[in-house]
Amino acid sequence: xxxxxxxxxxxxxxxxxxxxxxxxxxxxxxxxxxxxxxxxxxxxxxxxxxxxxxxxxxxxxxxxxxxxxxxxxxxxxxxxxxxxxxxxxxxxxxxxxxxxxxxxxxxxxxxxxxxxxxxxxxxxxxxxxxxxxxxxxxxxxxxxxxxxxxxxxxxxxxxxxxxxxxxxxxxxxxxxxxxxxxxxxxxxxxxxxxxxxxxxxxxxxxxxxxxxxxxxxxxxxxxxxxxxxxxxxxxxxxxxxxxxxxxxxxxxxxxxxxxxxxxxxxxxxxxxxxxxxxxxxxxxxxxxxxxxxxxxxxxxxxxxxxxxxxxxxxxxxxxxxxxxxxxxxxxxxxxxxxxxxxxxxxxxxxxxxxxxxxxxxxxxxxxxxxxxxxxxxxxxxxxxxxxxxxxxxxxxxxxxxxxx
Length: 404
Hints:
This protein is 24% helix and 21% strand. The protein is an alpha/beta fold. Helix 6 links the parallel strand 11 and strand 12 (240-244).
């Protein structure tokens, strides 16, 4: 960890997260003459993106490259990819995030890898203590203190003038359980359960070829997983998939099709819907998971199917039910969050998935992202959306531009 960001030195703006939004935040801060220090839990920029490197994005490059980041890159001779092409996660890493991280480092940003932030507070103030506001030593003027776990188990203490939490939600997926809680037996059988979009046509192919897989979820991640499994079934005899939804099939929204503001997203939904209508995929709708237990070398999933108890026997489970923010290490922060969406109260009604889709959320920025009792602290990027699944990367770019 750079000596310059340790306790008692000139205080930087701390950015938590080394993904697309975190690096964009660093670019905007540099543009404004501020000094960013990026704390990335992974060993390289965009480590979470690397876990879905096989997935093609449904938004083209022009929506995925931040304006300030592009200016920095082009000043160093970077050649932009075709802005109308659709990158994979691997493309995003190799053609954008890796060169951006290198450029930021040369521009004066401190990039700390394998540096997981495990706690945030105010210097000499816990959540309860207000301090001496009349004397100018109140909690709201105290520097931020971050506890950062380094390799080997040591904990570094770092101070910052402000914090932008861009840590995302990738490492905190929603569980398989029907009640928002992990289903009993879910943790015990985690070696046969994948979250998100596993690479079933690549590195994990052998685990799914010739096996039965139960896919949980009705969003775009689930659609991608199901489409890959259908392709695998054509290649590997005996491969079978079951697609389970928590709502009746008639209530599932597969997107706007040709009318979708993002054509590739509309096409993804149309392909998934066509698979169901043609009978290529067996659906369970509704099916709510109550318990998971081992039966020999397979999994027996107990659930509720339209009000009746039912069981499903499967080899593997893919849980693609969305993500939620990890707020556990922000316990000393005085956050102001909507009780349902877990976004700021000003942002929550703008992104509530019951009211909006990706294309109907209006632009927003610093004003909507404020935590009034924690001046100088912001959550940006996917984590700012709490449990709402309607986030687009371009939204994160606008958020950090406004904050900077």
